[in-house]
Every structure is written in structure tokens, then in C-alpha cells.
Amino acid sequence: MHDFWETIKHDHWVFPYLKKYKALLALIIFLGFMTFFCGGALMFTSGYLISRSAQKPENILLVYAPIVLTRAFGIGRPSFRYAERLTSHNWVLRIVSVFRKRLYEIVESGTKSIYARVQTGEMFNLMANDLFKIENMYLRVIFPSIIGWLLYIVGSIALGVFSPIAALIVLLVLGLNTIVLPLITLAIMGQRDAQQKQVESHIYTDLTDSVMGLQDWILAGRTDELVQRQENDFKRLGTLQTKDDHFDWWRNFTSEIIIGVVALILIIFATITFGHSQLGVNWIAAFGLVLFPITDALSSISQGFGELPRYTDSIKRLNDMDQQSQSEQNQQLSQVEAPIANEIKLNAVNFAYANSEAIFKDLNLTIAAGEHLAVLGQSGAGKSTLLKLILGDETPTNGNITIGGVNVGQLQEHRAEIVSVLDQQPYLFDTTVSNNLKLGKLHATDTELWDVLEKVNLKNLVAQLPEKLDTPMTEAGKRFSGGEKQRFALARILLQDTPIVILDEPTVGLDPITELNVLQTIFETLQDKTLVWVTHHLTGVELVDQVIFIEDQGISLAGTPEDLLNQSERFASLLVMDHGI
Amino acid sequence: MLDPRIFKFEGARKALGILTILTAIQAVVIVIQGRYLSVSLSELWQMTPLKAVALALSIFLSAFIIRQFLTVAKNYVLVPFAKQTTDQLQKELIQKYAKLGPTVISQNGTGKSVNLAIEGISQVNNYLTLVLIKFIDMSIVPWVILVYIATIKWEHALFLLFIYPVIILFMIILGYTAQAKADREYDRFNRLSNHFVDTLRGLTTLKQLGLSKRYAKNVYEVSEDYRKATLGTLSVGILSTFALDFLTTLSIAVVALFLGMALMDGTISLVAGLTILILAPEYFLPIRNFANDYHATLDGKNAFSDIMDILDQTELTDNHLYQAQQSGWQVDSQLVLENVNYAYPNSDQLALQDINLSLTGFERIGLVGTSGSGKSTLLNLLGGFIDGTGDVQIEGQRVPHLSQVDWQNNLQVMPQDPYIFHDTVRANLAFYTPQATDAEILQVLQRVGLETWFNQLADGLSTIIGDGAVQTSGGQAQRIALARIMLDQDRRIILMDEPTAHLDIETEMQLKETMLPVFNQHMVIFATHRLHWLAQMDWIVVMKDGAIVEQGTLEELLANDGYFVELQQAMKGVNRHA
Prior knowledge:
Radius of gyration of chain A: 35 Å
Distance between the termini of chain B: 74 Å
Strand order of the largest sheet of chain A: 6-7-8-3-9-10
Largest sheet of chain A: 6 strands, mixed
Radius of gyration of chain B: 35 Å
CATH architecture of the largest domain in chain A: Up-down Bundle
Helix content of chain A: 55-70%
Helix content of chain B: 55-70%
Oligomer: heterodimer
CATH class of the largest domain in chain B: Mainly Alpha
């Protein structure tokens, strides 16, 4: 619970928006209040109406007001409820739009141009899920609680007009329902929630292990053990849930009993206050019935509070992310226009990631305009880091990197005009083929699109699609094979038409024949560009002018493929191995 | 509304029986509660002193408390039954997963399978508790109340009875309208709601294209479009709730008016009028509660049939037909496949056709072909994870499929991405040999070249690795898989499915040096794109479109100058110098 208050105290994601959009919020609260008010008032006026009618008034006009009110409240209640639901969803979705933009900007500022394995789709799903949870928190906890409290206070004050003492008693007794029970719920659930989350994450890990590693479990003949383990996990969770359930049932029971008691108090109060006059007695039934339709509003506060700990993690994650991105805001260099020359030069570059060993020491490298360079090396040697440095995603600890004589740090704003990237997982968006291609050149004409598609050998494929260029890619480009996806990405890069193209293992995961075809298309279509190609094996290495090996914090081997083949035993043996028999 | 399969669970009839009885009692208590509240109010209205009304009031309060108590009691009856049932389902589901095997599970979708066993089960639980209680409430409570009201004033009972189907009718009509509108908007709606995740996943690409900053505006605009679309659907969608609400509230208001008239005419007493007024909302309450949980009902029902569908899937039986004749696979053991075919479910194309293979002793067999030629499918068939047609013999014993316990006890598999369990280094390495000593494990760690990696781990063999803990690179994962194989001396057949596809050439070369000695005294079936491995193979099987097009030794195949040579030339690639 302490954890929870801490989170709320430092929150700058969820609660500030309540203030920011307060007009709409007030409307929601008003509509919610009116829904329950009408519900209570309907029973109140009905109780009065029939009591008064039972006195057989000689003129129907004497009960005309309650008749009209009964109808009005009867229509008012569902109408207000309908309006409240629409308004509150509208409010929440409005906030979600703002949230999404904000979250996007945060993630954007931390994203590098080189694909990082840790940033999986799962993390993004998690973020989307966090937003969804916060939507729910507004709808299921915050709005109902405020409405419940408002009814509690307004109701007690209204009663105070007739009898301050009765109002005080009701205030105290109903306070058990609106304040004490919610706090108890929060305290108990907050404590259990931590335990429960632990078991839940255990179940998730174990089950993922079971399903993903199923082949091993079966072959090892250990499936009985797997079932047993899973069963134990579920049992542990079950025990915790049973405790939760029991608490919930008895809390609801208590809450209902409190309502019953308050109803009794109201009847007694009404009898004492109005029970002496012929006309006054009609109010007794009114007060006796008014409370029941409001019960839901009062008991939903506890329910909402019980869910609060579940949202804490999401709030915390969002807040943490904000802080991270703020600390990542680095000092921007003054930006300049893209240079005309495009020779890449690394001068005495040193680089290390925070708190780890140096990746490069005193690295010097010049990549002439139009040169085709292959970068080889074992995984972890620093191939990707080299690309990040050239792109300006990372800044050298010492030394500098220039393109056409300009520091890459100053080129970030116009970088997309000089450098493009083709990596192992080019993303195809869930929109049409044409929109995906146009990301490379926003105002490309259809002729231009067909032109590049022909170059990358996709013209026939796209021509056969049902809606040609306007066919949706379907989510994450699942419609197409790996080789085809790379070709689409290549088409996009052709449209972007930059003098320098970075190729980051673009053919990983393709079978050798497809791989070779794709590489040939890449080198053919990008013939006149500067190419920096990171690769983990040697298929197609004959296509480049220069090869370097990254190793031991620098370049251990460099030369043309021919030279290396003749002079370096290691290169020769690797090439033999890659070509196989 | 109720799936008849529910009644087949153990204890279902008993739990539902008790629930029905409790609900019936509760319905009577509700009537008593309403009646005595009316009596009290009516007495007080006649200016009877409070003390004289104390008995009626206390009966009301007692009924009120008993009613709440029965609610708790109903939970105590049904929840344990639901829990026991879902526990049972969960267990059966996991057992079924284990029996169906990895191939079927990955066809069903790994994430979906995990979700079904957790989320799905919890939805079924919800369905069994919430929904059953509300369903039984709806089937009993309103009718008991209605009968009681009829004894007081049948005209009102008739009105309430008449309005009930009208409410349901309106709900259905509006529900359908909403459904139709939702269906029409569904595509657009889905696309918009996925857009955010889609954009985040493509951020790296947007950044490369220099569009990432500008895209923030687009994110906002799409989200606003989504809002408008959602509200459009919602305004119709919640109309059915509105109709229900409107009609029930209005009915109560109408009842109150009628009662007023009747009272003024003196045709009924106040106590009767009040009773009807108080019981009218109770009459509508169950159906309102039920409607509120309609979605939980649907989710639960769907999850329930999904689970039942999986449990009904056929699995491979007769897993003990093959009885090993000697301890493990020996130099003279033989596996023969004759005319084996296989097609994936829902596909009329054969993924394997007319496979004829005869494998003996400790041969090393290379499996080559392009992507989709059937290499992995063949390995899955050999591993006993799928069931083809045709003739299979192990050591001369005819079996319907290779999902034989004794056969699988001989097998080890090294896939493209070996799975690293979220567990200790010790448990991961000794997965097939839980009895292995630490000394043996350490020795193997050294042999597979993981010593440097291992030495930097904080807790030695007890370090937790795998997803969400210490991560392993592709090369390290392969070495761990190799270590598992080395630790288990009894398994002599190794199936390899492109184990080095993701590795850089130097890592692959180092790993190859470690792997080759392991191949001794083993039968190895090695699917690969990397031709250099073929030099170490005794026999090569060349596949194309699910069929074996050539097989023989490397020399034979080269001399043959057939599809293999064509494949080899294509894989070898560009040769500017030739």
C-alpha cells in the first residue's frame, strides 16, 4: 500500500489529466451523479405518491407534481446513464490520444536507427496494455469513486436540512462503506497483490517454458513432471484467489448490511420527524425506499479500490519511462544542411558503452564515395556499433566521425537525405503497398513506384495483387516471404535515393539461394552508392571492393576480396568453408 | 445459454442442485423482505408508534441479512465447484499439450496456447461462477416474485409479465443493430486500434527514413479517428443497455402510477401497493445483472469451446508398440521408411511424398534442399512429432508412427534456436540427465567452449538463465544444446535442423570443431544449407517439394550431375573470378 501512495505521489501521467480536462470531467461526474439521483428520486417520489394516494385525495391535482416527477425521474435515469457512458468513454479516449502521442515521443527519442534485439514487439504490446489499463482505471475506479463520494456527501447534507443529528449518524455509518471499507480493501489487496503477481509471473514463465520447450520435455520423457509442476503453480495461485474471493464476499456482505442499517435509520428518522402529521406520514415510505437504488454507487467504491494495486505497475512503468527519456535528452549540436561530398571518415575513434569495456580504441577508417565495403567480425565484436557511430546514433567517447567533412552529430536533422538503412527486419507497416513505399519518398508518383518495383523484381508480384499498389500489406507484412519483404524495403530505399546506404545483415534468415538473389539485386540497384555492409558470413563477399574484419577493438584485417584471398589464410579458409564443397 | 457439456463435470449436478435450492430460498426471502418493509412503512404511515412496528421492522432486517447471507452461501457452493472444474480442465489441457507435441502446438500458435491455459481458463472460471449464479437467479427469482404479486393484484403481475419479453425483444433487436454496425466498422476499427503498436514496432524503420519526429502528429490523428469510430460504435452498442434500463425504469414508474390510481380508487391497500412497488425493481434486477455480464458470458463460452476443441483433438496413440531389443541404438540397428506421405492439416498438398529411406547404425546423413523442400517436416516425422502414412519399421518392428516412447528415448534434437529454459545453468544443461553431477556438467561446459562465459556468471551453476534472466547469444544457446547431448551418453540419434543458420561463419567454424567428435558413435541426421558440412556426411539426401530426388554419397551425387549439383552451384553463388 505504501508502494501505491508513493506511485501516486510521483505520478505525472495519470492524475494530472484529471485537472487538465476538468470541464468534461465535471460533466461526467454530473451525469453519473444524476443517474443515481434519478434512481433514488424515482423511488422517493413513488413512495410519496402512493402513500399520498392511499389517503384518497379528493383531487388528482394534489398528486400531480409527484406523478410528473415520477415520470421525469423514470426517463431521466437511463438517459443520464447513457449520456454518462458516452461522455466518459469520450473523455478517456481523448486522453488516450494524448497518451499515445506522448508515449510515442518518449519511445522515439530513445530509439536508434539500428535494430536492437531487446526492443521486442512484446514490450510494445505491454505499453499498449498499460494504456488500456489506465483507461480502465479512469472508468472503473476514479469516476465511480468520485460519483459515490459525491452522492454520500450531498445525500448527508440534504438530510442535514431536516435533522443535523440524523445526518451526522448517516454520515458516520455510511462512511464505513465509502471510506473505511475501501481503505481496508486497499490495504489487504495491496499486500496480497504483490504475492499474487509473483505467482502469476511464475506461472507465465513456467508455462512458456513448457510450451516453448515442449520438444525437450517430451524427448526427455519428463512430461509427467511438467504437468505436476504446472499443477502446483496453479494450486498456489488458486489458494491466493480463494482468499481474495472470501474477502470480497464478506466485504460485500458487510457493505450490504450497512445499507440495510442505514435504511432502518432513515425510516426511524422519517417517523420521528414527520410521523406526527397527517400529511407528514407520506414521507416515511419516501425515505424508506430512497436508499436502495443508490447502493451500487456506494459499494462500487470498495470494488474499485480493490483493483487499484493492479494498476500501480502500469502507472509506475509509464512514469519511469518519462524520467528515462528526460535523462536521455542530450545536448544537441547545431544542425547543418547535408554536405555535397559524402566521404565517411572515422578519426581516432574511441568508444565504450556506459560501464562496460571499450568496443573501439583509436579506430581510423575512410570510406570513399562510391566504395562498397563489407564489415565482417564475430557477433559482439562491434559491427553494429560501428554502424551506430556512422549514423550518429552513438557519439564517440574520443575522436570524431565526419561525412563529407561535417561531424555526423550536426547532420542528424538531415541525415535521411544522405544515409539510408536496410536492416535484417525492415518493417512493413499495416497499410497499402503504395503507402509503404512512399515512406521512402512522400510524394512519389505511381510511375516512380512501378519503376522501383521493376528494379527490385517485384513488378510482376505487385501487378498480380488484387488491388495492385493499393493492396494492404497486412499486419507486419505477413503476406510476403522474407526475400520479398527485403525487396520491398530495398524499393523504399531506392526511392529515398541517398548517396550512402547502410546494409545491416539484410539477408539473415533467408535460404542461400534466395539470399544470393537478394544480394545480387541489392548490389545491382545500388551500384553507384557508397555501401557499408555488415554481414556474418561470406556469401556474396565477392561483390564488394573492400573487406574489413572488426576484432579486438579495431580493424584486424583489411583489403580487397582478391588480396585477402591471396594473402590471408584465415579469409581464404573462411571463404572455402562458406562455399562448402 | 448454458453449454450442456458443463453438466458432465464431476459435482456439476450437485453444485447446481444446491444452488437452485439456495436461490429458491433466497427468492422467498426477497419476497418476505419486501413484504415486511411494506408492512412496517404502512403501519408507520397509519401513525402506529415505532415500538409497535419493531417486530415487522426486525423481520424486514432479518430477511435482508439472510438474503445477503444466502448470496455469500451461493458463492461458497459454486466457486469451489468452478475451481475444481477449471483446475481439472487446466490439468487436462497441459497434459494434452504434452501429448499433442510441439508441431501441433506451434500450428495452434504458441502464444495462443499459453494464453488459453491462463486467460482462457480464468474466463471459463468466471463463466462458471458469475454466469451460472446469474443465470439461475434469472430463472427463479423473477417468477417467484411474479407469482407473489399475482396473489396480491393479478393485473400488475400481468403487466410485469407482458413487459418482460418486450424488454428481451428490444435488447435483441438493438443488439443486432449494434452488431451489424460493429461488423461494418470492425475492419477499420481493428486497423486503427492496432495502428499504435504497429507504429511503435516500425519506429526503427521510421527513424531510418527520417520520418519518426513527424509521425507523432500522425499517431495523434489516427488515435482521434479511432476515438470517433469507437464512439460511433459505442453509441449504438450501449443502446441495448439503454433500452433495458429505460424499459425497466419506466415500467417501475408506470407501476407506481397505476398503484397510485388504484389506491385513490381504494381498490387496494397501501401495504399491497407498497409491496408491489418494492418488489417490481427486484423482479427486473436478475435480468439486468445478467445483461451486464453478457460479454463475460460470451468470452467464457468461447474460451470453453476452444479448450474443449483442443481436448477433443486426436493424439497419437499406441506409443509403446516398439520395444527396444537392445540397450539403445546400436551399430546394427535399422530404421526403414517406405512410401511415407504426409500432409499438414487443412492442406491438400503433400508436405512429404513417397519417402523411402533406410538408415543403419551410426551413419551421418546430410539433408539438403531449398526452404520449403520438406527437410524440417521430415525431421519432425523422424522425431515422432507428426504422423504420416506409409510403412515404418524400427529394428524390424512395424510401427504406425515414430511417436514411440522407446524410440524417442534414443533421440536428441538440435534445432535452429534451442530453447533455453528459465532455470539454472545446471538444470538447463542436465535437462536430459537430471542425475548428472556438477563435476560432469563443468567438464562438459569446458568441452563445448562455454568456460569463459560460465566463469563470469555470478552464481556459477545456480545462475538463472533464459528469458527474463541472463540472456544467451545464438552461439551460446547452440553450445548449451550440444552440452545437453554430450551429457546424455545413452541417446545415440541426433536430429539437427540447421543448427548453425544464425551463426556467423567463424563461430560456426569453432562450433563445428566441437561438434564433429560428438558425432562418433551416433546416428546423425543433419539438415543444413551450409554445404561444408556435407564433406563430413556418409550419406546425403536431397529433397525438393517434399520428395527425395536424389540420395547417395557426396562423390556419387557430384558424379551424378543432377539436381544436387544444380543446387550446389546456386548456393555457391557469384564467382566473379571464375
